[in-house]
Amino acid sequence: MFTTLISTVELGTAFGRSDLVICDVRHDLVQPQRGASEYAKAHVPGARFVHVDNDLSGAPTGRNGRHPLPAPEAAAALFSRLGIDATTQVVAYDQGNGMYAARLWWMLRWLGHDAVAVLDGGYAKWLKEGRATTTEVPDPRRASFGIRHVTPTVNAAGVRASIDRHSLFLIDARSPERFRGEVEPFGPVAGHIPGAHNRPFALNLEADGTFKHTSFLRAEFTALLDGKSHETVVHSCGSGVSACHNILAMEIAGLPGTRLYPGSWSEWSADPSLPVEVGP
Hints:
This protein is an alpha/beta fold. The protein has 2 domains: about 5-130, Oxidized Rhodanese, domain 1, CATH 3.40.250; about 155-270, Oxidized Rhodanese, domain 1. It contains 10 helices and 9 strands. The strands form 2 sheets. It has a 5-stranded parallel sheet with strand order 1-5-4-2-3. α4 (about 100-110) crosses α9. The radius of gyration is 18 Å and the shape is globular. The model has no long low-confidence stretch (mean pLDDT about 95).
């Protein structure tokens, strides 16, 4: 069973398994239909397309973030349509760095499905190695996805209550310039949640887009925590997508069980009553 990462070699040898479901999660925050367009041009054989906005998010209201979590029942219905049940090994990939694939990885784990892995290096590595692609769109058999449990997340009220008590260790996966409040390409307010620590998700990766070795990730996150327990960690980002990449990286590092603040900065900054911090 693959529960964090799967290599291109491992996926190549897994073709033909009756329990395998491959999901293409390519996406572009600026051009939301780009992923579907790229999928139509070519994709890994057997892959089903999953849209970050339409499939992996609920309806945004302007107050609940750009990519709010769907209701567990809605997510379970999606997974059933994709052909996922308790016996399924899921593999998720995106264009390369795993940011969007990690959202699907996290959502399946959120509802208790552990047999899900992100393709290390994504579609870019798959193509670079000259592996097979197709334009054929599969017609997946409908399955019955059962919710085993719903993993707790943290909401804005929980994060706000923790600031003065320093009870949570908040890790922000956005780029340093967004964290510092120098730019904000997706919202009207720049900055970060007071007390948050910046760990851009790109730091989890090697130059070729694959994840760093377990030992390096563990050393880096341990240094960031500086003696704090990883069980107090809550992850945020712009809208609850790239934060999942840090959750995956900590899982690879042997530091499991960290939590997500799904609304992240896009929800936090929409509430003028919540404090904002700028700078490092």
